[in-house]
Leucine--tRNA ligase (Aneurinibacillus soli), 819 residues
Amino acid sequence: MSTYKPHEIEEKWQQYWNETGANVTNEDESKPKFYCLEQFPYPSGRLHMGHVRVYSIGDVVARYKRMSGYQVLHPMGWDAFGMPAENAAIKLGAQPAKWTYENIDFMRNQQKKLGVSYDWDREFATCSPDYYKMTQQLFLLFYERGLAYRKNGAVNWCPNDQTVLANEQVEEGCCWRCGTEVVKLDLEQWYFKITDYADRLLEDLDQLQGWPDKVKTMQRNWIGKSTGAEVTFEVPEINESLTVFTTRPDTLYGVTFMVLAPEHPAVRKLIAGKENEQEVTDFIERIRKESDITRTAADAPKEGMFTGAYARHPLTGKDVPIWIANYVLMDYGTGAVMAVPAHDTRDFSFARQYELPIVRVIAPAGEDVDVSAEMEEAFTEDGVLVQSAEFDGTPNREALVKIADSLKEKGIGGSTISYRLRDWLVSRQRYWGAPIPIIYCDTCGTVPVPKDQLPVLLPEDVVIDGASNPLAKSEEFVNTTCPCCGGAARRETDTMDTFIDSSWYYLRFADSKNDEIPFEAAKANKWLQVDEYIGGIEHAILHLLYSRFFTKVLHDAGMVNFTEPFKSLLTQGMVLRDGAKMSKSKGNVVSPDEIIEKYGADTGRLFILFAAPPDRDLEWSDSGVEGSFRFLNRVWRVVEANVELVTSHPAVNVSDSDAKELNRTLHATIKKVGDDIGERRQFNTAISSIMELVNKIYAYPETADRGMFAHAIETTVKLLAPFAPHIAEEMWRMIGHEDSVHHQAWPAFDASALVLDEIEIVLQINGKVRDKMVISASATKQDMEALVNENDKIKELIAGKTVRKVIAVPGKLVNIVVG
Ligand code: ANZ
Ligand code: ZN
C-alpha cells in the first residue's frame, strides 16, 4: 500500500507538464475558444493567500474548459511598474529593475508550485522595454486621436509619494496607495480624455450580463450622469456672464444668491479693486487646500464670503449677490451654482448661516401654504410652483421642462447633461514607469517621439531619493534633439500612470511576442473578449473603468472588433483569519509556502475553493485545511485499493439496484460539478458533491456490479482533476493510463441515469410506520396493495385482525387500517 505523498508527486508532475508543454495554449480552430484570466499581480515579493485564491479559481475554470473541448488561453504576467520598487530603491539601495525581476522570479516559482496551468510562453512584465515600447505606441495613438492632452489645473498631489494622482486614485481624500491625505496643487499635467467616452462607458454597462451588479452600480455612480440645465446670469459690472449648472431649473424664481467655487476664474475679476480683495484672496487660498471630501461632506461646516458683486436674475432682472463658498467645487458642472435655499438643503443651511433671504417657490400640491411663513428646513419634495410668475400652479416636474425650454428660446440657457467623471490624469513624477514619449522643442513645440525611435528607454544611472522626479535630474535623459528640426530639445520627464500598463495587458497576451505593434488585430479578435476575468473588488472603478475605456478607443482605431474587454467578471472575496483580513500588520498571515510544505498544493487549493463561494469572504481554518487533506487521502485510498479492478476495465452492468443508485449519484455529480464550475462558478458546492460521491463509493457493497464500481472510481479522478490537478494526475496513471488526465474529455452526463425506476415507500398500520419497502416507481395502487400483502412483517402484525381499509398513495405509502 502506498500512501499519499503530495511532495513527491507534485514536483514530479509539475516538471512533466512543463517538459511536455501541457499548458501551452492549445490553438485548435476546430474548437470554441475560451479566455480565462486572473488579474496579473504586482510583483511585491511574495504571494499571499489572496493570490492563491484568485489563481485557484482561475485554474479550475481553465482546466475544466480544456477538458470540455475548448481551446483555452490562460496566461500570466506582471504588473511590474510602480512605487514600491522605487521605495525599495530608496530604503534598500536596490535598483528598481533588479528588485522587481527578483520578486518576479520568486513569485513565478510559487505559482508553479501551486500547479496553476499557465501558458508561460506568453508571460511578460510591463516594465520590460519590449512591453513599454508598445505602451508608448498606444500613448501616441491616443495623442494622434486627440485623446491625450496637457492642461494646467488643480490636481491631487500625494505629499508622501511625491506625485500627482488621478481622481480615481483618491479614496476619501487620501492616496489609494499609502493613505496620506491628498492636497491640491496647480500643475500642468497630461490627461486622457476619458470624458469623451462617458456616455458609452455608461450605456455599455447594460451589455455586461456577466458582471456583478454591485460593480456596475459603482461605475454608474462614478460616471455620475446628471440631467439638468444651464442658466446664464449677466454680471453687468464686469460685463461678463456666469453660467450655472442646475438639476432644478423649476426653482429658478427661488434663486436668492449665487455661489461660485473659490477657484472659479471669474472670482479674481469680481473682487478686483474691492475693499475686501485681500480678505477674499486669503480665503480662497485657504479653501483650495481643503480636500473635496472635507468641502462636500453633508455635515461639514459651510464657509463662504460675499464677493461684493451682483448678477442679474435672468427672468426677474433682480440683483443677485454673488458669494464664494467651500461647498461648491470647481470641477463639477460649471463651478457655479444658483442657490435656492428654500429647496436645497446645502443652500438652506448656508443661507441661515449668513442671513440670506429664503424664497419658497414650490408648495405641496393641494395645500394652501403661506408663502411668507418662515421655513424650518428646505422643502425638497415635488409640488406645484408658487411665486413664479406665469408658471404659478404648474406641477414642478412639468415646470422643469418648460423653464428650461423658455431659457433656450431666450438664448440664456437650456437643457444639458453633466458628468461627475473627469479626464484621467496620467502623468506621474516618478521614475519606475513608462516614459511619456514626447519631446519639447522651442521651435516646433510639443513633438511626439517618432515610432521608430521607441522605446524611450528609462535611464539606469539615476538618483532615486524620493525627493523629486529622478528623470528630471538626469541631464542625459532630458537633453535630446528635436525629431522635426534637429535642434536642441528636452524630453518629457513624467512617466505614465501604471494603470495605463494594465489597461491593455489582456490584449497583449493574444500576441505577446509581437515586436512591431502591440498586437495583431486578428489575434486579439480571436481570443478576446476575456470570457472569465477574476480579480479583486478594489478595482471596481479604477482598472476596470480604464480598461473599458482603452478597449473602446482601440475599437474606434480599428485595432479590435469588440467594445468591451471582459465578458464575465468574478470578484473574489477576501481571505480572513479570526475575522480580520490576513495582513502582515495584523500578524495573522498564513503563507502559501507553509501550506504547500505541510500538505501540498492540492490540499491548499481544495480548501480555498471549498471553504466559501468565490465571491464571499473566506475564513481561514486550520481544521478545514486538515479536512481537505483527509478527503484527498480518502480518495487516494479507494483508488489505491482498487487499482487492479479499475485498470482491468470490467464491463459496466447497471442492473442491480446498488449499481443503479451509484450510477444515479455519479451522473448527478457530473451534472452538478459541470454546472457549478461552468455556469454558476460555485466551486464549493461542486466539491461537496464530489465528496458525497466518494461516500457512495465507499458504501457500495461488494456484491454489486464491479464494472459500475470501477467506472465510478475512474470518473471521480476526472472530476477531481480541475481542483487537485497533481493527485488526480497521479491516480490517473495508477489506474493504468499513459496520457494525462488533463487531456481527457470531461465525463459525459447521461440524464436518463437520473430517472429513478425504483423507489422506497413506507408501510403503515393505523397511521404508524411499521416497515419500508423498495418497489417499482411505476407501481399502481393495486400493485402496491398486492405487494403489501406479501410483506412478512406486515403479515405478522396484522395476523388475527380485521383489515377494514387499505389506503395506497402511489410513490409514498400504504396505510392499513385494522380494527
Ligand atoms: C439649483 C438647485 C435647486 C439645485 C434645488 C438643487 C436643488 P447633481 O444632482 O449631483 O448633479 N451644483 C451644481 N454644480 C455644483 C458644484 N460645482 N458644486 C457643488 N454643487 C453644485 O447636483 C446638481 C445640483 O448640485 C445643482 O442643482 C446645483 O444645485 C448643485 F432645489 O441648482 B442645484
Ligand atoms: Zn523642433
About this structure: The two ends are 62 Å apart (CA to CA). The chain has five domains: 7-126+502-586, 136-193+423-499, 226-418, 621-754, 758-818. The mean pLDDT is 94. The CA atoms of residues 427 and 496 lie 5 Å apart.
